[in-house]
Amino acid sequence: MAPFRGLFLLTYFWLRQWVHTAALAAYEFSRNGLILTCLLWLGASGCASNPYTARSQLLIIPESYEIQMGEQAYAHVLEDPKITISTDPREVEPVQRVAKRIIAAAKVSKYAERAKKFAWEVTVIKDDKTKNAWALPGGKIAVYTGIFPVAKNEAGLAAVLGHEVVHALARHGAERMSQGLVAQFGLQAASILLSTGGGLGPQMNRVVMQALGLGAQVGILLPFSRSHESEADYVGLLLAAQAGYDPREAIRLWQRMAAASEGQPPEFLSTHPSHETRIQNLQRWMPEALAIYNRVEHAPVADLPTVTPSPSQEHPSPPSESH
Question: Given 66, 91, 154, 164, which residue is catalytic?
Answer without folding.
Answer: 164
